[in-house]
Amino acid sequence: MKIIATDRNGDVRELEGRDGWTVMEILRDAGLPITAECGGACACATCHVYVDEEWAAKLKPKSDAETDMLDMALAVEGNSRLSCQIICAPELDGLKVTVAPE
Amino acid sequence: MTSPIETDVVIIGAGPTGLFAVFELGLLDLKCHLVDILDRAGGQCTELYPEKPIYDIPGLPIVTGQELTDRLMDQAKPFSPTFHFGQMASGLSKLDDGRWKLSTDAGTEIIAPVVVIAAGGGSFVPKRPPIPGIDAYEDKSVFYAVRKMDHFRGKDVLIAGGGDSALDWTLNLAPIANSLTLVHHRDGFRAAQHSVNQMRELVEQGKVKFHVASVKGLHGDGGKLEQVTLAGADKQEFKIDANAFLPFFGLTIKLGPIADFGLNLHENLIPVDTEKFQSGTPGIFAIGDINNYAGKLKLILSGFHEAALMAQAAFHVVKPNEKLRFQYTTSSSNLQKKLGVA
Question: In this structure, are B244 and B263 located in the same domain?
């Protein structure tokens, strides 16, 4: 599956997602500026991304823990997600995300 | 100004690696002072995930970040480490006698022949909202912590955030502020329910205003805030009067002053050798997440291993004329006495 990722400068990159990996891991390993301080434990809100509207509804809904943790993220919008909570899967081929400001 | 403290080893960072270093250094009779910007031990373990279970600590099939910290504190206790909490290690200089002087932003100075940097990703500092020009207002009208409540008396105070800090300060400052507005991106909070209930009561009584909104712009002159642009859930922008703004979005990790210690950082990490875990500067060691070497894994157990080897090398720096006697805690009555068990 492909992930279309936009970084904070507006540069767009096409990344190869791996089924079962989190989107955070794909972004981080590709060198995008995702700090992911807690390593994917939904405990720090530093892997915050905006999901393109067309994809937002196709993702599994946020858990309470993710909703709570987003309260500690900056510049939260309706399409904000923590990328450590999005699992790569074939049906998400083409997922578009933008790294949120820090 | 108090006179500098003199000790054997000063450790920057009281996370799991720094705490275990106290133990390993203590077995070799080296005394430690630790500096940490947080107000308690544990580093990421207690700040980010105190309740989350950790499964990869040898011998502890499951342990939370808080429990691991508590156990490491117990293990370090026989060696009576001194903690300097709530202070950022801000400067490092070499003295004529070859020792190092570490200074903190609170004015503490610690002199030691060995410095151990166990600072993880750096310092926990408040998250700064990405609002254009916010830096011009910081410490004048924008504050990330309340030091003196009286500073906000009679002001039009704006608080942003949805956690306990945002709610607690809303409740505490509402009675003394001229006006208090709370903004959050949703009408829901991750704060204690009774605080949320109290806040909602104040809103009903007209003593606090609450908007589902985010802060988009700050307006004022010379750091003096006058108005703030908010954007509501419908993205419509509007302005309110505010002369103090308190964003409460928790903490994040920034490398901070360690970057200026002259340690030839590589991608914010300190390169070390794998025999002593010493940086390129003799007497300065780096262990845990902050160091880098071929094959490095950012795991707590790696930090423990690095602490043990560092301690062996640090001994020779502190006591160059003494022979290191390598002993096991299981068999050495000498070590057991130090641990208070024999």
Answer: no
Are both B22 and B108 inside the same structural domain? yes
Average pLDDT over residues A36-48: 92
A90: which residues sit within 8 A by CB, 6+ positions away?
Answer: A1, A19
Q: Which residues of B touch A102 (CB under 8 A)?
A: 127, 130, 252
Q: Which residue has the tokens 């830096």?
A: B135
In angstroms, the CA B12 to CA B37 distance is 9
Q: Which domain holds residue B194?
A: 128-249
Residues in A closer than 8 angstroms to B52, CB to CB, are 41, 43
Q: What is residue B20's three-state secondary structure?
A: helix
Q: Do B108 and B192 belong to one domain?
A: no
ipTM of the assembly?
Answer: 0.86
Residue pair B124/B252 in contact (Cβ under 8 Å)? The answer is: yes
Q: How many CA atoms lie within 13 A of A30 on its CB side?
A: 21
User: Residue B77 in contact with residue B20, Cβ under 8 Å?
Assistant: no
What does DSSP say about strands B244-247 and B156-160: parallel, antiparallel, or unpaired?
parallel
B198 and B101 fall within a common domain: no
Q: Output the CA torsion sign for B199, B160, B149, B240.
A: negative
CATH assignment at residue B116: 3.50.50.60
pLDDT tens-digit series, residues B247-277: 999 999 999 999 999 999 998 999 999 999 9
Structurally, chain B folds into a number of domains equal to 2
Q: Which amino acid is at B71?
A: R
Percentage with pLDDT > 90 across chain B: 96
Nearest chain A residue to B162, by CA: A71
Same domain, yes or no: B11 and B72 = yes
pLDDT digits (tens, 9 = 90+) for B85-114: 999 999 999 999 999 999 999 999 999 999
